[in-house]
Write a structure and sequence with these properties.
With 334 residues, this protein is an alpha/beta fold. The chain folds into two domains: 196 residues, Isopropylmalate Dehydrogenase, CATH 3.40.718.10; 120 residues, Isopropylmalate Dehydrogenase (3-Layer(aba) Sandwich), CATH 3.40.718.10. A twelve-stranded mixed beta sheet has the order 3-4-2-1-5-12-11-6-7-10-8-9, sandwiched between helices. Helix 1 links the parallel strand 1 and strand 2. Helix 8 packs parallel to helix 9. The two termini are 16 Å apart.
Length: 334
């Protein structure tokens, strides 16, 4: 029997519990891979009552989750209670969310689960509790550290229509400009290629590398960064045998015909990458962390406090995240 996926609770006051419950209820209809939820069973039962859904919930060990998945939603306790009401995080929220992430990673690294799937967190809630990482991606890299080495995480947003990677991630635009370098572009792109080959089954991934400035700088008249930073990185990628093109104007690489010419767009900053994919595939895009020694995916949306507990949350992105995690984990096995 295949190992189950470890699904974190995310922010307990958000829609994570809602979409987890809805997804499990459609497990047979959608032929979903088995998963278990790391969190507080009592909190999940309260949310089920709020949503007026009948879900059988079973307290299990991770090793036993796959065997009960057909008949009950497996819940693996983290030892942290979650008392927050829908839309209203409280003093238990941060510890519950962080504990579920830590345990999910521990389960995968110990061989109890095949991959990590994370429900949305509320960064502001975690920051107030002393969380020092910009987001999931950087925290997961720390948890993946081994032998004094911390891997460089790369955030990919993936959908059947488009895959994008921002070279700089959760920083201000001013800081993104100061951080951008040929080396960072080169390292990021190499990690993307390695994971596209090993976990997505692409023998020769094709990369479209966006320019930083409008029209990729117009030969330097709109900024020289594309000539001095981006172009040298693309040349080194091509010298290394990677199918990369760029710098390409960011305003023309996302239309339908252009998207057919590459497998992933490497973009220079957060919004340059995320605006197009959230426009094209908001309901089924998946956040994937590349460069880790384990598979991690996540729905590509936030906690949606305003609709938590109302029954209006759409589980489509979580369904896509679970399916992609199972696919990547299967490809990752020797």
């Amino acid at each position: 029997m295949a190992k189950p996926l470890a699904l974190t609770s995310g922010e307990p006051a958000g829609i994570g519990p809602d979409i987890a419950l809805k997804t499990w209820l459609r497990r047979n209809e959608l032929n979903l891979p088995p998963f278990y939820l790391l969190g507080d069973r009592a909190a999940l039962e309260r949310r089920a009552r709020a949503l007026s859904v009948e879900v059988r919930i079973a307290d299990v060990r991770a090793e036993d989750a796959a065997g009960v998945f057909t008949d009950a939603l497996p819940v693996v306790a983290t030892g942290y209670n979650a008392t927050a009401e829908p839309g209203r995080p409280d003093h238990t929220s941060a510890d519950a969310a962080i504990a579920s992430i830590r345990q999910a990673v521990a389960d995968v690294r110990a061989g109890r689960a095949s991959a990590v799937v994370t429900n949305p967190i509320a960064k502001s809630v975690l920051y107030r509790a002393g969380f020092r990482h910009p987001g999931h991606t950087e925290f997961l890299a720390e948890l993946a550290a081994s032998g004094g080495h911390t891997p460089q995480p790369v955030m990919m947003l993936w959908s059947p229509a488009l895959a994008v990677v921002p070279v700089t991630i959760h920083v201000s635009l001013r800081d993104a400009l100061s951080q951008l370098s040929s080396e960072l572009i080169l390292t990021t792109a190499r990690i993307v290629v390695a994971d596209l080959q090993s976990r997505f089954g692409l023998t020769n991934p094709r990369l479209a590398v966006s320019g930083l400035n409008p029209h990729a700088g117009e030969d330097g008249s709109l900024g020289t960064e594309d000539q001095t930073i981006v172009a040298p990185a693309v040349e080194l990628l091509r010298d290394g045998g990677i199918d990369a093109r760029g710098p390409l104007p960011a305003d023309t690489i996302f239309h339908e015909a252009a998207r057919k010419s590459y497998d992933c767009a490497i973009c220079m900053y957060h919004d340059q990458a995320l605006i197009p994919i959230k426009t094209l595939a908001f309901e089924d895009a998946v956040n994937v962390t590349l460069g880790l020694p384990f598979v991690r995916t996540s729905p590509d949306h936030g906690t949606a406090f305003d609709i938590a507990g109302t029954g209006r949350a759409n589980p489509s992105s979580l369904v896509a995240a679970l399916r992609l995690a199972a696919r990547m984990a299967a490809a990752d096995r020797p």
